[in-house]
Specification:
Structural class: alpha/beta
Largest sheet: 8 strands, mixed
Shape: globular
Radius of gyration: 19 Å
CATH class: Alpha Beta
CATH superfamily: Vaccinia Virus protein VP39
Oligomer: single chain
Number of domains: 1
Number of strands: 8
Length: 284
Amino acid sequence: MAQTANDGQADFWNADPGRNWVLFQPDMDLILAEVAAEVFRQAAPAPGERVIDIGCGAGTTTLEAARRVGAAGRALGLDISHPLLERAEERRRDAGLANLAFLHGDAQVHPFEPAGTDLILSRFGVMFFADPVAAFRNMASALRPGGRMVFAVWSNGQVNPFFSTPGRIAAERLGPPEVVDPDGPGPMALRDPARVLHLFNESGMVEAEVRKVPLDLHHPGGVDRVVTMLGRLGGIPGILREKGGTAEDLAAILAGVREAFAGYATPDGIRIPAEINLCTAVKS
């Protein structure tokens, strides 16, 4: 069994949230396509490089990294969710990629090969550590001198209606959720660029930069498809569990989200404005 320092996250992602992410994996790939494009534009994996994808989930970005580094390179996807890794492995087999592997593990404590990696990247996989300093130090240990990290993390929730709007509508229906540490493990844990720069500095990385990138979360299936997905993923299921919400509550919340998101409908589907922090650094 893989060593883990994040048992709460392991429990979460190996239960219904992980299985639901598998169910909606094609939708999430569409929604996050611009995010992945920004990561790869910055990371620029080169033929022959060795790449690690942290929090790889169902493997979308790992598969892309493997294609870009080619047969002479190597890509490794690391995640703590068995359901997501099973889906990732299915996709690897379907793609016929031999320069790619998926591994169950916790990047905070995983025993990486020291200085064996050219690039560590992540699309929203580094915000869930119980001890971010330890996690960033451990990831940095895997990089060769001059190796680089490129991470996409969410910016502030208030500029990301994909999160803030469903959360607000659910709280209006069921009451505010339990107050939690805003810097604890979760989607917005690295919203503050200063915190990310501190983590890079503590892990021995240099040339650190955090750039705010506005983009769209686009789904050609439109408002209804995204609202259906949000009934199973994200904040709405969480607050329903916490408050003992009913099917009637869920229907009312989703109706409110559908109305709120109607303004994001376009001729080619829904486009929800978003903002990410694109975080980069180099190993000294």
